[in-house]
Amino acid sequence: MKNLRKDILSRVYLVYAFIALFAIIILGQTINVQYVQGEEWRQKAENLTTGFKNIEAVRGNLYAADGSLLATSVPIYEVRFDVNTEALSDEVFYGEIDSLCIQLSELFPSKTKKQYKAEFISARKKGSRYHLVKRNVKYTELKELKTFHIFNRGKFKGGLIYTQQNKRVRPFEVLAARTIGYEREGVKPVGLEGAYTKDLSGVNGKRLMQKIAGGVWMPISDDNEVEPQDGSDVYTTIDINIQDVAENALRKQLEMHAADHGCVALMEVSTGQIKAIANLSLTKSGTYYETYNYMIGESTEPGSVFKLPALMAAFEDGYVSLDDMVNTEDGTTKFYDKTMRDSHKGGFGIISVKRAFEVSSNVAISKLINENYADKPQQFVDRLYKMNLNKRLGIEVAGEGMPLIKSTDDESWSGVSLPWMSIGYESHLTPLQILTFYNAVANNGKMVKPMFVKQIKHRGKVVKDFKTEVINNSICSKKTIEMAQEMLLGVVEEGTARNLKNSTYKIAGKTGTAQIANDKYGYKYESKISHQASFVGYFPADNPKYTCIVVVNAPSRNVFYGNLVAGPIFKEVADKVYANSISIHAALKKKESYAASKIPYAKDGYYDDLAKIYKELGVKTKTSQKVNEWVKVSTGANEVQVYHKKVAPIYIPDVTGLSVKDAVFLLENQGLVVKFSGSGTVKKQSINPGEKAVKGAKIILELV
C-alpha cells in the first residue's frame, strides 16, 4: 500500500514536471516572439496588410462657349522601382544598372548617374520592393521611361511600377481664374469647379493594394477591381475672346489709376448668359491677379448707379415724371443736420428730372425722393423690394454677397436714411446684383438670373441642358421701363458719360462714384477719402443685346469719376463685342441686281466638257468657226458664243480665262513648272503666249 502510494505520487510529480516544463517553454517562446523577434514579426504582419484603395476618377473638363478648354485634368505619375522583383537577376541588374542611371540622369537631371546608382544598389541590398524614383512625372516622360534599360522589361521582369494621379490645370491661366475656381480637399469649394463638383468628379474606382515598409501602399496587380467612372464635362457661357479683352482692359485701367481692385462682367440681355467676368486685385508684389470674386461676393454701397431704381420707384408710384422740374439750389441742400452736395459746384439751377439723372445731381434726386416719401418711407422701401433688390440672385457659384435695402424698422434707420438711400448710400449690392437689375431694364422689365453654364455632357452626350431662369417677369410697368431707358440713353448722349458716345452704335447707362466706408474709420481715414468708380449700361441702346458693368475700387491718382475710370473699360469691351457680333449690326439693304444675262457664266476650257454642260442646262451655243479641243467662250443674253483657242505643242498657249486646273494641265504637258497666286480664273501669265516652250522653265499665273 505504501509502495502503491509512492508510485502514484511519483507519476503525479512527473506529470506536473512535464506541465511546468511545457509552461516554461511556452512562456519563453512568448517572450522571444514578443521582445526578441517582435519587430521582425510585426514588420511581416505589416507587409501582409492588404486593402482596397480608391482610384481617383478623371475629373471632367470645363469648357468656354466655343469649346476652348478652361480647366482640365492632366495625368501625372509617381514612378517606383521594385529592385528585388524575382525575375530581376543579379546578372541583369548589375549588368544594366549603369545604362539605366545614365538615362535617368539625362531625363531627370536633379540627380547624377552616381546618385541614382547608389540609391538602387542600397535599395536592392535592403530588400526594398517599392523604391521611389520620381514624383510628378509627365505622360511623355513615362513613355520614355518605359524604353530605358531594365525598365523596358516591364513591371514583373524589370520592376517598373507607376501610379497615375490627376493634376488640375487651366490652359488660359489667370483668365477667369476665380470664376472657374477650384475644389480641394479641406478647402471650401470655389467658383464653377466647386459649384459643379458632383458632376465633374465622377465615381472613384477600387484597387487592391498591399501595405509595405514605410506605410507605402503598393498595387498588387495592374488591373483595378472596380474601374473609375470619369466625370462629366461642363460647358460654360464664357466667351474666351471677350473675356481676354475684358481682363486686359480692366488691368490697363487699374494700373493707370493705381487702384486697389476692380471687376467687369458682360451679360447677354435676353438669356442672362455671362459672357465675360474678370476680377483683379493688387498683390503685394505690385501686380494684379484674380484673388477674389468681387463681382459676386463684394456687397458695397453702390453710389449713383442706385439712382435708377430710386427714380423708377417714384415713377411706378406715380409721384414723378421725366418732365417734372426740381431746384438743385446752389448744389447743396440740408436734411436735418447733414448737407447733401453735388459734385458740380454751384448747382444746375432748376432742371427736369431727366436732366437731373443725366448730370447725376445728388441734390435733385434726394429732394425728389424725400419730398414724395418722407411721410411714408416704407412705401419707397417696399417698391424696391418688389423689384427684387433685397434678394440674393441664388446663383450656383458660392459666396454671393448679401444685398441690403434698409427697412424703416431697422435700428439704424434715421431721418436722413431716405435721401441718402436714394443716391446709393445706406444700402449694399454686389456688382452682379446691380448688373442683373440694369439687364432687366434693357430686357423691357423681365429680370433673368445670371447664367454661367449651358450644358453638362458625359462622353459627348448631353446629360443636362440649362435654360434661362426668370426671377421676375416684370419688375415694373412698361411706362416706367420706357422712362428709365430714355434716362439711361440721355446719360451717354447728353450727360456724365458723353465720353462713351460714338457714331457707330448707341450706349445707354449710368455712371457711379461712391465714397467707400470703412467699418472702423467711416468715409475718411488720415484726411483721405477713398472712392469706388462704376459704370453700368447696355448696348446697342435701340435694340439691347448685352449689359455690362465695371467697378473700380480705390483709384488713387485723383481721378475717381465713373465715366473716366470705369467708362473706358466698358467702351473697350463693348467695341470688341459690337465689332464681332454680326447679329447686332443693322441688316444691309438688299440692292437690285441687274445681271446682263441669266445664262450661267463659264470659264474658257475644254470644249467637250463645256458642250456637255450647256446641253444638260439647255443653254444655246453658237460657233462662228471650227473649234478644236480648247475654246474661249463669251456669255451673251440668250446664248453662248464659242471661239477656237489656239494651242500648239511647242509654243506657250494663252491660258488667260481658263481655270487653274485646265491651265496647269496644258502648261505642265509642255514641261513647264507652274506657280500661281490667288484663286479663280487666270488673269495674267508671266510668259507671253506664242513664245517657244522651254522644258523646265518656270511660269507664274495670276488668278482672280
Automatic annotation (TrEMBL):
Q: Which InterPro entries match?
A: Beta-lactam/transpept, Beta-lactam/transpept-like, PASTA_dom, PBP_dimer, PBP_dimer_sf, PCN-bd_Tpept
Q: What is a single cellular component term in the Gene Ontology annotation?
A: plasma membrane
The residues covered by the PASTA domain are: 646-704
Spell out the SUPFAM superfamilies in the cross-references: beta-lactamase/transpeptidase-like (SSF56601), Penicillin binding protein dimerisation domain (SSF56519), Penicillin-binding protein 2x (pbp-2x), c-terminal domain (SSF54184)
For this UniProt record, give its keywords in alphabetical order, as a comma-separated list. Answer: Carboxypeptidase, Hydrolase, Membrane, Protease, Transmembrane, Transmembrane helix
The compartments listed are: Membrane
> Which spans are transmembrane here?
12-31
One GO term of the biological process aspect = cell wall organization
According to the UniProt entry, its GO molecular function terms are: carboxypeptidase activity; penicillin binding
Pfam families the record matches = PASTA (PF03793), PBP_dimer (PF03717), Transpeptidase (PF00905)
**What Gene3D superfamilies has UniProt attached to this entry?**
3.30.10.20, 3.30.450.330, DD-peptidase/beta-lactamase superfamily, Penicillin-binding protein 2a (Domain 2)
* PANTHER family named in the record: PEPTIDOGLYCAN D,D-TRANSPEPTIDASE, PEPTIDOGLYCAN D,D-TRANSPEPTIDASE FTSI
Protein name from the UniProt record: PASTA domain-containing protein
Q: Read off the lineage from the record.
A: Bacteria, Pseudomonadati, Bacteroidota, Flavobacteriia, Flavobacteriales
